[in-house]
Prior knowledge:
three-stranded antiparallel beta sheet; globular; eight-stranded antiparallel beta sheet; alpha+beta; 19 helices; 17 strands; about 550 residues
Amino acid sequence: MGETPNLRQNPEEKCKMFAKVVEQFTELPRPIVTILAENKGADYKLKKENGYFKLPNGDFYPHNLFGAIQSLTSHSGDDMEEAIIRAAFKDISKFTLKPKLVVELLSDGVQSVKNAQMVIDKIQFQISASPIMENLEQSWKNMSSSIHDNYPGTLLCVQRVFERKKIYTMENLPQTKKDIVSLMKEIPANNVVPQLLEQALGIEVPKLNISLVTGQCYNIINDCTVPITIFKLETNYTLSPIGYLMPSDIKCELNPEIKDICEFFRSNAEYIASRLKDLNVAGNINVNNHLFNVTARVGGDYNVISTNVDCNKFTKFAALREYRQFRLTLVNDVDLSQEFTAAVDNLPTFALKKLESVNKFKAFFQRFGTHVVTSCFGGGAMEFAVSVENKETLKSIEDIRRFASQLRADFGNVFGLGIDSTYTGGYQNESRTNLSGTSYNATLKGGDMTYHIRNLTQLSSDKASEHIEKWVQSLSVQPLMLNTNMHLMPLSYYARKHNPNAGQQIDLASQELFKDNLKYVPVSTRTPPRPKPPHHPL
């Protein structure tokens, strides 16, 4: 599918080719995967795990189909086709179930179906007899009958992965954390796989030993996390789609996405309003109160620029490119910790004119913050810092926005990066930027520290592009939790579940002490973002 440059660069042509294949094999011009989901998922009353249908053979649909297609496209070097496949499988909720809709497939006698069956027969393979397969089979037999009943097909699923990777002896087993995690990502996640691998082969699946942020408290006034949680998180761990063990109270979903962020504001008030929206919070904070920590987030992707920039010798700003790999979300109805419920019960009625009451609420907010992080992204980021000598063309915020968009396109050419059209806005078709009088550097956040060099601009274009590609590949093993597009819930929401009156007092104290008027925005009611074109896998 990717033999010509034209096909690699034009997704519309590829989509038309996919449509022709669908029309050839079915009587309805819709993606084959959608037809299967609509006809079979509900009719056969398949159970769901982690958002995937669990098939009788232990595979997880459409995870197994996605993995197979992704493997074929990535190994063939067809970047555009892989990007289309990733976009198609990005949101499992789009696989709607319509059991009343019946679409007949073509009969076995049709030549195109015969040809397809011949291909399928050739790619199927048997499980080879080997010490590894024997150990897996013996350990599976030793497991309880309830595990066999609840997780049928797990053994075969694991054996298939080992067969495909040609892991036949103990010497072939992955030894490093990186290799183990890479292997785990090939196997559909369930609770039995880690136990089976440890008993049969001595493979211990690692935990993701970084602060997961999700479930932690957050101080929205200081715009930072607080190293404490109000929940009694489970000590049980489950295998996640990224190959690590995760606490069972935190759901992990693959979310491959590239996000370019560079915003400019005329005032701190504009910045605060934008940042609150980014945190999924509606309302406002009184800027004149000087409580909101404006400097906490300025830089990286937010830039507050004074209106008289032409009076300064240089204008400095920053931009961010996030490589999102997954999203962590706190599951519903997690038990509150005894520490938090005791602190809530100890709160008095709030009275602004009573010093003792005010001090108790201040201590409460100092300890637990104001909100809880219920969801955030994990991955890595590339940070750009730019200093440009002011010119006649840079006299307003709009001038700087235009310049930044054009400059970012130039960076894309230098580092071999794809450009997000939502970032470049309406400026991407304008002439290229004159880089005279402009200095910049680029640094990497997250991933393997080996790739963290002082400044990527010191490398040639080819070497920088290769360096970035290797760094991106390391993000799945050594991710960083990102602090953009997080979801927050107010502490009072959880306090009300335990003590309704205390929750009301927390809201009142927040309004009086911080001069804020904030509300949580339910994720389901927010306006969905405009769809973006597929990105280069980088």
